[in-house]
Amino acid sequence: MDIREAVKDKANYADIVTYFQNLNILDLDQMALLIDTIDEMSEEIFEHYRALQLIFRKEAADIIEQRKQEGSFAFLTEAQQKKLFGILEKGCGLRTINREKYEEYLAELK
Predict the structure, then answer these.
(1) pLDDT of 1 strictly over 80
(2) How far apart are CA 8 and CA 42, in angstroms?
(3) Contact status, residue 54 vs residue 35, Cβ threshold 8 Å
(4) How far apart are CA 52 and CA 3, in angstroms?
(5) Closest to 87 measured CA to CA, from 19, 7, 29
(6) Domain boundary assignment for the chain
(7) Is residue 17 a contact partner of residue 52, using CB atoms and an 8 Å limit?
(8) What pTM does this model have?
(9) Residue 44 phi/psi, 5° resolution?
(10) pLDDT-based confidence at 6, cuts 50/70/90?
(11) Distance between CA 2 and CA 107 in Å, rounded?
């Protein structure tokens, strides 16, 4: 499924949610696609919009938990850290995640 095209038609929203739910653990490319999808999606279909936000929040929290356990973001390459910064920054900008909660980690990734 081409998510970027599918999001243009509200009739596809349920399929988009199912797609992301079936991925289980998202890599950074999939997280970037997810936050871009949230950005493009109409909030009018709230249950689907909210479901994608919850998936994103869980994935972001899982990465932060790994960061806490490891003591740094060294488990990611420098390129991955930059990508994660952009993903989290966009998530904060869309109010999908709380900037105050992630501020410390954004500063570390910057």
Answers:
(1) no
(2) 9
(3) no
(4) 13
(5) 29
(6) 3-109
(7) yes
(8) 0.90
(9) -60, -35
(10) confident
(11) 33
